[in-house]
Amino acid sequence: MVKQIRLAAHFPGVNNTTVWSDPAAGSHIDFESFRHFARTAERGRFDFLFLAEGLRLREQGGQLYDLDVVGRPDTFAVLAALAAVTDRIGLAGTINSTFNEPYEVARQFASLDHLSDGRAAWNVVTSWDAFTGENFRRGGFLPKEQRYGRARSFLDAASVLFDSWRDGGAFAVRDEHFDVEGRFGLPRTPQGRPVIIQAGDSPEGRDFAAAKADAIFSRHAGAEAGKAFYADVKGRLPAHGRAPEDLVILPAATFVLGDSDAEARERAREVRAQQVSPQTAIKLLEHVWNRDLSDLDPDGPLPQDDPVVDGGTIAPGRASVRMYRDPLATAREWRELSRARGLSVRELMIEVTAEQTFVGSPETVATSINDLVQQDAADGFVLVPHITPGGFDEFVDRVVPLLQERGVFRTEYAGTTLREHLGLKPLG
Protein backbone atom coordinates (compact mmCIF):
# COMPACT_ATOMS: atom_id res chain seq x y z
CA MET A 1 0.00 0.00 0.00
CA VAL A 2 1.36 3.42 -0.97
CA LYS A 3 1.66 5.75 2.01
CA GLN A 4 0.52 9.35 1.85
CA ILE A 5 3.25 11.82 2.80
CA ARG A 6 2.75 14.28 5.67
CA LEU A 7 4.48 17.66 5.42
CA ALA A 8 4.81 20.46 7.96
CA ALA A 9 6.40 23.88 7.59
CA HIS A 10 8.67 25.07 10.41
CA PHE A 11 9.15 28.82 10.85
CA PRO A 12 12.70 28.77 12.28
CA GLY A 13 14.33 31.10 14.75
CA VAL A 14 15.85 29.37 17.75
CA ASN A 15 18.85 27.96 15.87
CA ASN A 16 21.69 28.90 13.53
CA THR A 17 20.24 27.31 10.38
CA THR A 18 18.54 30.45 9.08
CA VAL A 19 20.69 32.71 6.92
CA TRP A 20 19.94 36.03 8.60
CA SER A 21 22.40 37.92 6.37
CA ASP A 22 20.76 37.00 3.07
CA PRO A 23 19.02 39.99 1.41
CA ALA A 24 15.92 37.79 0.98
CA ALA A 25 15.61 37.21 4.74
CA GLY A 26 12.67 39.02 6.29
CA SER A 27 11.52 40.21 9.68
CA HIS A 28 10.52 37.86 12.50
CA ILE A 29 8.27 40.53 14.02
CA ASP A 30 6.40 41.87 11.00
CA PHE A 31 3.17 39.87 10.63
CA GLU A 32 3.56 39.87 6.86
CA SER A 33 6.45 37.40 7.26
CA PHE A 34 4.21 34.94 9.08
CA ARG A 35 1.32 35.52 6.69
CA HIS A 36 3.45 34.87 3.59
CA PHE A 37 4.98 31.76 5.15
CA ALA A 38 1.62 30.32 6.20
CA ARG A 39 -0.17 31.13 2.94
CA THR A 40 2.64 29.51 0.93
CA ALA A 41 2.53 26.34 3.03
CA GLU A 42 -1.25 26.24 2.69
CA ARG A 43 -0.98 26.71 -1.08
CA GLY A 44 1.25 23.65 -1.02
CA ARG A 45 -1.44 21.78 0.95
CA PHE A 46 0.91 21.21 3.91
CA ASP A 47 -0.58 19.57 6.98
CA PHE A 48 0.45 22.26 9.43
CA LEU A 49 2.68 25.21 10.20
CA PHE A 50 4.87 24.94 13.28
CA LEU A 51 6.26 27.64 15.56
CA ALA A 52 9.02 26.97 18.06
CA GLU A 53 9.16 28.98 21.28
CA GLY A 54 12.06 30.29 23.34
CA LEU A 55 11.29 31.27 26.93
CA ARG A 56 14.51 33.18 27.50
CA LEU A 57 17.06 34.91 25.31
CA ARG A 58 20.04 32.63 25.50
CA GLU A 59 23.51 33.74 26.47
CA GLN A 60 27.08 32.75 25.75
CA GLY A 61 29.95 34.00 27.84
CA GLY A 62 27.53 36.38 29.57
CA GLN A 63 26.43 38.00 26.31
CA LEU A 64 23.21 37.49 24.36
CA TYR A 65 23.63 34.69 21.84
CA ASP A 66 23.72 36.53 18.53
CA LEU A 67 22.21 33.72 16.43
CA ASP A 68 18.83 33.79 18.19
CA VAL A 69 15.78 35.80 17.23
CA VAL A 70 15.18 38.74 19.54
CA GLY A 71 11.65 40.03 19.84
CA ARG A 72 9.53 37.44 18.04
CA PRO A 73 5.86 37.81 19.08
CA ASP A 74 4.12 35.38 21.40
CA THR A 75 3.17 32.07 19.80
CA PHE A 76 -0.56 32.25 20.58
CA ALA A 77 -0.79 35.80 19.24
CA VAL A 78 0.82 34.77 15.94
CA LEU A 79 -1.25 31.60 15.51
CA ALA A 80 -4.53 33.36 16.32
CA ALA A 81 -3.74 36.01 13.72
CA LEU A 82 -2.83 33.32 11.16
CA ALA A 83 -6.16 31.59 11.79
CA ALA A 84 -7.82 34.66 10.27
CA VAL A 85 -5.78 34.64 7.04
CA THR A 86 -5.71 30.87 6.35
CA ASP A 87 -8.48 28.34 5.81
CA ARG A 88 -7.17 24.78 6.15
CA ILE A 89 -3.56 24.50 7.27
CA GLY A 90 -2.98 23.33 10.84
CA LEU A 91 -1.52 25.77 13.38
CA ALA A 92 0.99 24.21 15.79
CA GLY A 93 2.58 26.02 18.71
CA THR A 94 5.26 25.00 21.19
CA ILE A 95 4.10 25.60 24.75
CA ASN A 96 6.09 24.56 27.81
CA SER A 97 4.62 22.20 30.42
CA THR A 98 7.17 23.05 33.11
CA PHE A 99 6.48 26.72 33.73
CA ASN A 100 2.81 27.11 32.69
CA GLU A 101 -0.47 26.01 34.28
CA PRO A 102 -3.00 23.53 32.78
CA TYR A 103 -6.03 25.85 33.00
CA GLU A 104 -4.25 28.70 31.24
CA VAL A 105 -2.84 26.55 28.43
CA ALA A 106 -6.07 24.57 27.94
CA ARG A 107 -8.04 27.78 27.62
CA GLN A 108 -5.60 29.21 25.07
CA PHE A 109 -5.56 26.09 22.91
CA ALA A 110 -9.32 25.62 23.15
CA SER A 111 -9.71 29.22 22.00
CA LEU A 112 -7.33 28.65 19.08
CA ASP A 113 -9.13 25.46 18.06
CA HIS A 114 -12.47 27.27 18.05
CA LEU A 115 -11.12 30.32 16.19
CA SER A 116 -9.48 28.13 13.53
CA ASP A 117 -12.39 25.66 13.16
CA GLY A 118 -10.31 22.74 14.41
CA ARG A 119 -6.75 23.37 13.27
CA ALA A 120 -4.85 23.73 16.57
CA ALA A 121 -1.86 21.62 17.62
CA TRP A 122 0.21 21.71 20.80
CA ASN A 123 3.88 20.77 20.80
CA VAL A 124 4.31 19.74 24.44
CA VAL A 125 7.84 20.46 25.62
CA THR A 126 9.60 20.38 28.97
CA SER A 127 12.33 22.48 30.51
CA TRP A 128 14.53 21.64 33.45
CA ASP A 129 17.32 24.24 33.44
CA ALA A 130 17.31 26.90 36.15
CA PHE A 131 18.55 29.48 33.64
CA THR A 132 15.21 29.45 31.81
CA GLY A 133 13.32 29.00 35.07
CA GLU A 134 14.63 32.30 36.44
CA ASN A 135 12.01 34.04 34.29
CA PHE A 136 9.25 32.25 36.22
CA ARG A 137 7.94 32.06 39.77
CA ARG A 138 9.07 28.45 40.14
CA GLY A 139 12.41 29.05 38.49
CA GLY A 140 14.63 25.99 38.50
CA PHE A 141 12.52 24.09 41.00
CA LEU A 142 12.01 20.97 38.88
CA PRO A 143 14.75 18.31 38.81
CA LYS A 144 15.53 17.01 35.35
CA GLU A 145 14.34 13.49 36.16
CA GLN A 146 10.85 14.81 37.02
CA ARG A 147 10.17 16.78 33.86
CA TYR A 148 8.28 14.05 31.98
CA GLY A 149 6.30 13.21 35.10
CA ARG A 150 5.04 16.77 35.26
CA ALA A 151 4.46 16.81 31.50
CA ARG A 152 2.25 13.71 31.75
CA SER A 153 0.31 15.21 34.64
CA PHE A 154 0.03 18.53 32.82
CA LEU A 155 -1.33 16.91 29.68
CA ASP A 156 -3.72 14.71 31.66
CA ALA A 157 -5.00 17.77 33.52
CA ALA A 158 -5.46 19.73 30.31
CA SER A 159 -7.35 16.77 28.80
CA VAL A 160 -9.74 16.78 31.76
CA LEU A 161 -10.41 20.45 31.06
CA PHE A 162 -10.92 19.90 27.32
CA ASP A 163 -13.50 17.18 28.11
CA SER A 164 -15.18 18.94 31.03
CA TRP A 165 -17.99 20.53 29.01
CA ARG A 166 -19.81 17.20 29.18
CA ASP A 167 -20.13 17.86 32.91
CA GLY A 168 -21.08 21.48 32.61
CA GLY A 169 -17.45 22.56 32.65
CA ALA A 170 -16.80 21.17 36.11
CA PHE A 171 -13.32 19.76 36.68
CA ALA A 172 -11.09 18.60 39.51
CA VAL A 173 -7.48 17.45 39.18
CA ARG A 174 -5.41 16.35 42.15
CA ASP A 175 -2.06 14.60 41.84
CA GLU A 176 1.54 15.17 42.91
CA HIS A 177 1.88 18.17 40.58
CA PHE A 178 -1.54 19.84 40.54
CA ASP A 179 -4.46 20.56 42.84
CA VAL A 180 -7.03 22.51 40.81
CA GLU A 181 -10.82 22.58 40.79
CA GLY A 182 -13.40 24.76 39.10
CA ARG A 183 -15.33 25.18 35.85
CA PHE A 184 -13.89 25.45 32.36
CA GLY A 185 -15.46 28.30 30.44
CA LEU A 186 -15.31 27.00 26.86
CA PRO A 187 -17.40 24.33 25.11
CA ARG A 188 -15.85 21.29 23.52
CA THR A 189 -13.71 22.27 20.54
CA PRO A 190 -14.04 21.07 16.93
CA GLN A 191 -11.23 18.54 17.41
CA GLY A 192 -12.08 17.71 21.03
CA ARG A 193 -8.58 18.87 21.95
CA PRO A 194 -5.57 20.11 19.96
CA VAL A 195 -3.43 17.58 18.12
CA ILE A 196 -0.63 16.66 20.54
CA ILE A 197 2.95 16.81 19.28
CA GLN A 198 6.07 15.78 21.17
CA ALA A 199 9.77 16.04 20.37
CA GLY A 200 11.68 13.95 22.93
CA ASP A 201 14.34 11.51 21.80
CA SER A 202 15.28 9.95 25.15
CA PRO A 203 13.68 6.66 26.22
CA GLU A 204 11.38 8.68 28.48
CA GLY A 205 10.48 10.99 25.60
CA ARG A 206 9.74 8.11 23.27
CA ASP A 207 7.51 6.46 25.88
CA PHE A 208 5.72 9.76 26.48
CA ALA A 209 5.05 10.09 22.75
CA ALA A 210 3.86 6.49 22.46
CA ALA A 211 1.43 7.01 25.32
CA LYS A 212 0.15 10.53 24.69
CA ALA A 213 1.16 12.10 21.37
CA ASP A 214 -0.48 12.22 17.95
CA ALA A 215 2.78 13.18 16.24
CA ILE A 216 6.44 13.12 17.21
CA PHE A 217 9.28 15.21 15.87
CA SER A 218 12.53 13.40 15.29
CA ARG A 219 16.08 14.40 14.36
CA HIS A 220 16.59 11.07 12.56
CA ALA A 221 15.98 12.02 8.93
CA GLY A 222 18.35 9.52 7.31
CA ALA A 223 17.33 6.08 6.12
CA GLU A 224 19.15 3.89 8.66
CA ALA A 225 18.62 6.03 11.76
CA GLY A 226 15.09 6.90 10.62
CA LYS A 227 14.06 3.28 10.24
CA ALA A 228 15.46 2.40 13.67
CA PHE A 229 13.66 5.31 15.35
CA TYR A 230 10.43 4.59 13.47
CA ALA A 231 10.44 0.91 14.43
CA ASP A 232 11.28 1.68 18.06
CA VAL A 233 8.57 4.29 18.63
CA LYS A 234 5.87 2.48 16.64
CA GLY A 235 6.79 -0.68 18.56
CA ARG A 236 6.01 1.05 21.86
CA LEU A 237 2.41 1.84 20.88
CA PRO A 238 0.73 -1.54 21.61
CA ALA A 239 1.78 -1.34 25.27
CA HIS A 240 -0.42 1.75 25.50
CA GLY A 241 -3.35 0.23 23.61
CA ARG A 242 -2.57 2.16 20.44
CA ALA A 243 -2.10 1.24 16.78
CA PRO A 244 0.71 2.35 14.42
CA GLU A 245 -1.57 4.81 12.63
CA ASP A 246 -2.29 6.60 15.91
CA LEU A 247 1.14 8.30 15.92
CA VAL A 248 2.70 10.19 13.00
CA ILE A 249 6.52 10.33 12.93
CA LEU A 250 7.95 13.51 11.37
CA PRO A 251 11.72 14.09 11.32
CA ALA A 252 12.97 17.64 10.90
CA ALA A 253 14.62 18.16 7.52
CA THR A 254 16.30 20.96 5.58
CA PHE A 255 16.52 21.25 1.79
CA VAL A 256 18.33 23.04 -1.01
CA LEU A 257 17.03 22.94 -4.59
CA GLY A 258 18.68 23.56 -7.95
CA ASP A 259 17.92 23.04 -11.62
CA SER A 260 20.32 20.09 -11.45
CA ASP A 261 21.83 18.03 -8.67
CA ALA A 262 25.21 19.64 -9.30
CA GLU A 263 23.75 23.13 -9.06
CA ALA A 264 21.93 22.20 -5.84
CA ARG A 265 25.16 20.86 -4.31
CA GLU A 266 26.92 24.11 -5.11
CA ARG A 267 24.05 26.14 -3.62
CA ALA A 268 24.15 23.91 -0.54
CA ARG A 269 27.85 24.69 -0.05
CA GLU A 270 27.09 28.40 -0.31
CA VAL A 271 24.26 28.11 2.21
CA ARG A 272 26.47 26.23 4.69
CA ALA A 273 29.13 28.92 4.38
CA GLN A 274 26.47 31.57 5.11
CA GLN A 275 25.12 29.64 8.09
CA VAL A 276 28.53 29.24 9.70
CA SER A 277 30.33 32.57 9.57
CA PRO A 278 33.78 32.88 11.18
CA GLN A 279 32.18 34.30 14.32
CA THR A 280 29.53 31.58 14.39
CA ALA A 281 32.18 28.89 14.03
CA ILE A 282 33.90 30.10 17.19
CA LYS A 283 30.59 30.29 19.09
CA LEU A 284 29.72 26.73 18.09
CA LEU A 285 33.17 25.45 19.08
CA GLU A 286 32.75 27.11 22.49
CA HIS A 287 29.73 24.87 23.10
CA VAL A 288 32.13 21.92 23.36
CA TRP A 289 35.25 23.59 24.78
CA ASN A 290 33.06 25.46 27.32
CA ARG A 291 35.34 28.49 27.54
CA ASP A 292 36.00 31.75 25.77
CA LEU A 293 37.68 31.10 22.40
CA SER A 294 37.33 34.60 20.97
CA ASP A 295 41.11 34.82 20.44
CA LEU A 296 41.10 31.68 18.27
CA ASP A 297 41.60 32.01 14.51
CA PRO A 298 38.52 30.47 12.80
CA ASP A 299 40.70 29.71 9.77
CA GLY A 300 43.29 27.96 11.94
CA PRO A 301 43.47 24.65 13.82
CA LEU A 302 41.44 23.47 16.80
CA PRO A 303 42.59 24.36 20.33
CA GLN A 304 45.37 22.18 21.70
CA ASP A 305 43.92 22.03 25.20
CA ASP A 306 40.92 19.90 26.17
CA PRO A 307 37.39 21.16 26.89
CA VAL A 308 36.48 22.41 30.34
CA VAL A 309 34.21 19.78 31.89
CA ASP A 310 33.93 21.02 35.49
CA GLY A 311 31.72 23.82 36.73
CA GLY A 312 28.99 25.60 34.79
CA THR A 313 28.45 26.10 31.09
CA ILE A 314 29.48 29.00 28.90
CA ALA A 315 26.02 28.91 27.28
CA PRO A 316 23.29 28.26 29.88
CA GLY A 317 20.02 27.02 28.46
CA ARG A 318 21.56 25.97 25.15
CA ALA A 319 20.17 22.61 23.99
CA SER A 320 23.13 22.22 21.67
CA VAL A 321 25.49 22.29 24.65
CA ARG A 322 23.61 19.43 26.26
CA MET A 323 23.89 17.45 23.01
CA TYR A 324 27.61 16.93 23.65
CA ARG A 325 27.32 14.68 26.66
CA ASP A 326 31.02 13.74 26.43
CA PRO A 327 32.94 16.87 25.39
CA LEU A 328 36.32 15.15 25.67
CA ALA A 329 35.25 12.38 23.27
CA THR A 330 33.73 14.96 20.90
CA ALA A 331 36.97 16.96 20.94
CA ARG A 332 39.01 13.84 20.11
CA GLU A 333 36.65 12.95 17.27
CA TRP A 334 36.79 16.46 15.82
CA ARG A 335 40.59 16.61 16.06
CA GLU A 336 40.89 13.33 14.17
CA LEU A 337 38.49 14.57 11.47
CA SER A 338 40.31 17.90 11.24
CA ARG A 339 43.72 16.25 10.87
CA ALA A 340 42.52 13.65 8.38
CA ARG A 341 40.92 16.19 6.06
CA GLY A 342 42.99 19.28 6.81
CA LEU A 343 39.99 21.26 8.10
CA SER A 344 40.18 24.61 9.86
CA VAL A 345 37.89 25.46 12.76
CA ARG A 346 35.32 27.03 10.46
CA GLU A 347 35.52 24.25 7.89
CA LEU A 348 35.06 21.67 10.63
CA MET A 349 32.03 23.46 12.07
CA ILE A 350 30.50 23.63 8.60
CA GLU A 351 31.11 19.90 8.23
CA VAL A 352 29.63 18.80 11.58
CA THR A 353 26.73 21.23 12.04
CA ALA A 354 25.24 22.43 8.78
CA GLU A 355 24.70 19.65 6.25
CA GLN A 356 21.28 19.78 4.57
CA THR A 357 18.95 16.77 4.50
CA PHE A 358 17.63 16.98 0.93
CA VAL A 359 19.88 18.45 -1.77
CA GLY A 360 19.18 18.13 -5.48
CA SER A 361 16.88 18.93 -8.35
CA PRO A 362 13.13 18.95 -7.60
CA GLU A 363 12.91 15.43 -9.04
CA THR A 364 15.76 14.17 -6.83
CA VAL A 365 14.31 15.74 -3.68
CA ALA A 366 10.80 14.45 -4.39
CA THR A 367 12.20 10.95 -4.94
CA SER A 368 14.26 11.06 -1.74
CA ILE A 369 11.31 12.20 0.39
CA ASN A 370 9.00 9.59 -1.07
CA ASP A 371 11.54 6.78 -0.74
CA LEU A 372 12.11 7.46 2.95
CA VAL A 373 8.39 7.55 3.68
CA GLN A 374 7.62 4.39 1.72
CA GLN A 375 10.52 2.61 3.49
CA ASP A 376 9.06 3.47 6.92
CA ALA A 377 11.90 5.77 7.87
CA ALA A 378 9.23 8.44 8.47
CA ASP A 379 5.59 9.31 7.85
CA GLY A 380 6.62 12.68 6.48
CA PHE A 381 8.87 15.61 7.37
CA VAL A 382 8.89 18.92 9.20
CA LEU A 383 10.69 21.02 6.62
CA VAL A 384 12.93 23.88 7.78
CA PRO A 385 13.92 26.47 5.15
CA HIS A 386 17.12 28.48 5.46
CA ILE A 387 15.33 31.67 4.37
CA THR A 388 12.15 33.16 5.82
CA PRO A 389 9.55 34.05 4.85
CA GLY A 390 10.05 33.02 1.19
CA GLY A 391 12.02 29.84 1.73
CA PHE A 392 9.12 27.54 0.83
CA ASP A 393 8.09 29.25 -2.41
CA GLU A 394 10.36 27.15 -4.63
CA PHE A 395 9.59 23.90 -2.81
CA VAL A 396 5.84 24.42 -3.16
CA ASP A 397 6.13 25.40 -6.82
CA ARG A 398 8.57 22.70 -7.91
CA VAL A 399 8.60 19.71 -5.51
CA VAL A 400 5.01 19.46 -4.31
CA PRO A 401 3.58 19.01 -7.86
CA LEU A 402 5.94 16.06 -8.39
CA LEU A 403 4.73 14.39 -5.19
CA GLN A 404 1.15 15.02 -6.26
CA GLU A 405 1.79 13.48 -9.70
CA ARG A 406 3.03 10.32 -7.95
CA GLY A 407 -0.19 10.12 -5.96
CA VAL A 408 1.60 10.33 -2.59
CA PHE A 409 0.54 13.83 -1.57
CA ARG A 410 -2.84 15.52 -1.59
CA THR A 411 -3.93 17.91 -4.32
CA GLU A 412 -6.69 19.31 -2.10
CA TYR A 413 -7.50 19.15 1.59
CA ALA A 414 -10.07 16.39 2.13
CA GLY A 415 -11.18 17.56 5.56
CA THR A 416 -11.33 20.71 7.62
CA THR A 417 -9.48 19.76 10.83
CA LEU A 418 -5.83 19.00 11.42
CA ARG A 419 -6.72 15.54 12.74
CA GLU A 420 -8.28 14.82 9.36
CA HIS A 421 -5.22 16.13 7.50
CA LEU A 422 -2.95 13.78 9.48
CA GLY A 423 -5.23 10.76 9.04
CA LEU A 424 -5.90 10.49 12.78
CA LYS A 425 -9.08 8.95 14.12
CA PRO A 426 -11.65 11.42 15.50
CA LEU A 427 -11.84 11.61 19.27
CA GLY A 428 -14.84 10.18 21.05
The mean pLDDT is: 90
Count of individual beta strands: 13
CATH topology of the largest domain, which one?
TIM Barrel
Rg computed from alpha carbons, rounded to a whole number of angstroms: 22 Å
Instruction: Walk across the major sheet and give the strand order.
Output: 1-2-5-6-9-10-11-13
Largest sheet: 8 strands, parallel, barrel
Q: Count of helices?
A: 16
Task: Please trace the helix and strand order, writing H or E for each element.
Answer: EHEEEHEHEHHEEEHEHEHHHHHEHEHHH
Count of discrete structural domains? 2
The N- to C-terminal Cα distance equals: 28 Å
CATH homology group of the largest domain: Luciferase-like domain
Structural class: alpha/beta
Beta-strand portion reads 5-15%
Helix content: 25-40%
Instruction: Write down the CATH class of the largest domain.
Output: Alpha Beta
Low-confidence stretches: none
